[in-house]
Write a structure and sequence with these properties.
mainly alpha, Cytochrome Bc1 Complex, Chain D, domain 2, 0% strand, single chain, 15 helices, binds heme C
Length: 364
């Protein structure tokens, strides 16, 4: 994605700001420590506490990595190249992705009728974790691991589409309906179905708008001038248009889940040539492969390969769910798509192997 403006000149200023804030807030920090203590254990895995629009970033002492918020990064740009970017992005975002935008209406990429209810329900059920603008920075976010998703990169993990495609509506619908097991993302089965589709549409809109704003910022850093909003907005809506999403289907119906299939799956899982699942997940899928500690996700947080023997799968534990996960991969993480690299038969063998791991673990 070209230049990552993450560690630019803002680092020193932020460090200074953090220093003075920490001093003046010492009393409160001490008081807060009592409250926060139970969560601190997970802190090294959480990474930094930043999100797009808040400015009180906190460095991760382990990795010394800063997740530079959007607003800071725009300010850094203006310090270096002169003013204008913030106003330019705000105006363009309103013009192209505002809810009054005739342009966006004409693209057909958003179902506008669903937006008001989507917004209302998002404010009721989602802002506490995902934040009002969908940057993953709600008040509860800093205590959660994994962190609530920022939608503003346009990137979603659990999809039924190929690596280059944005998610389908029904992928987001499934996530909202079933939740993500093993994370704090709750299921919303009790919210009526139409309202869940409204939420899907609202999340899509937040994601498009955020993706556009981030693209404008990245483009500005790359070319050192104000970006062409018309060109970038067209790219974003095209990416999200349903006609441009390429779904992944199981190439064949589920093959028999028998000992022979599990045996083939075991060998495949541990074969260096094909997928090399073991390198991340470990020979028996415990999440302890040789490279297990090496990764970070596209949102800038450390990420571990899943312990597959625990039987908890965010995107579902049914055969079709696991097939989809292996074929489509988990976007924004080191877990790539294996469609094409593996035959459908091979993917089913891996599914059966993975399912056998948690069967063995569970009590008889
Ligand atoms: C208690 C906190 C919490 C609440 C409330 C919550 N979420 Fe989430 N959500 C999460 C977490 C944590 C993740 C990331 C899980 C992961 O990374 O595997 C997530 C991820 C997601 C994703 C991304 C899935 C993907 O494929 O990347 C979507 C979409 C989503 N949430 C929508 C919603 C909507 C819509 C609501 C309200 C109806 C909501 N969430 C409420 C915590 C929450
Ligand atoms: C480069 C490292 C890497 C490789 C290689 C890899 N994975 Fe993963 N895998 C991950 C990571 C990281 C996650 C956790 C992603 C997350 O937290 O959302 C994961 C998660 C999973 C999940 C859990 C999905 C869920 O719904 O929770 C399954 C199943 C899985 N991998 C299967 C495989 C199989 C099968 C292979 C080989 C074909 C493979 N992985 C290869 C890194 C890898």
């Amino acid at each position: 994605m070209g230049i990552q403006p993450s560690n630019r000149s803002g680092r020193r200023q932020r460090a200074a700001r953090r220093g003075s804030a920490a001093l003046s807030g010492l009393f409160w920090l001490l008081a807060l420590a009592l409250f926060v203590a139970p969560f601190l254990r997970a802190r090294d895995d959480i990474g930094s506490y930043a999100n797009d629009f808040t400015r009180d970033t906190v460095a991760d002492s382990e990795t010394d990595k800063l997740d530079v918020p959007f607003a800071d990064d725009v300010a850094n740009y203006e310090r270096e190249f002169g003013p204008g970017l913030a106003a330019h992005i705000a105006a363009a975002s309103e013009h192209y992705f505002g809810l009054e935008s005739p342009w966006l209406r004409d693209t057909g990429s958003v179902e506008f009728l669903r937006i008001p209810s989507g917004q209302q329900n998002f404010e009721i059920h989602c802002v506490g974790c995902h934040g009002a603008i969908g940057d993953g920075g709600g008040p509860a976010a800093r205590y959660l691991k994994p962190r609530p998703r920022s939608f503003r990169k346009g990137l979603f993990k659990f999809t039924s589409t190929d690596a280059a495609s944005r998610p389908q509506r029904r992928d987001l619908f499934q996530t909202i309906t079933r939740g993500l097991a093993g994370s704090s993302m709750p299921e919303f089965r009790l919210v009526n179905e139409e309202k869940r589709w409204d939420l899907v549409e609202y999340v899509r809109w937040l994601a498009m708008k955020g993706e556009f704003e981030h693209m404008m910022l990245d483009d500005a850093w790359e070319n050192e001038e104000l970006p062409d909003a018309a060109e970038l907005s067209a790219i974003v809506v095209a990416r999200w248009h349903p006609a441009n999403l390429r779904p992944i289907f199981p190439g064949v119906n589920e093959t028999p889940n028998d000992a022979a299939s599990v045996e083939r799956g075991t060998r495949l899982f541990n074969a260096a040539a094909k997928g090399s699942c073991y390198s991340c997940h470990g020979e028996r899928g415990k999440g302890d492969g040789p490279t297990a500690l090496d990764y970070e996700d596209d949102w800038g947080y450390p990420i571990r390969p899943r312990d597959l023997s625990a039987g908890t799968f965010r995107a579902g534990a049914e055969g079709v769910d696991l097939y989809r996960t292996i074929a489509a991969g988990i976007k924004g993480t080191p877990m790539g798509s294996f469609e094409g690299a593996l035959t459908p038969q091979e993917i089913w063998d891996l599914v059966h192997f993975i399912q056998s791991l948690s069967k063995q673990e569970s009590p008889k």
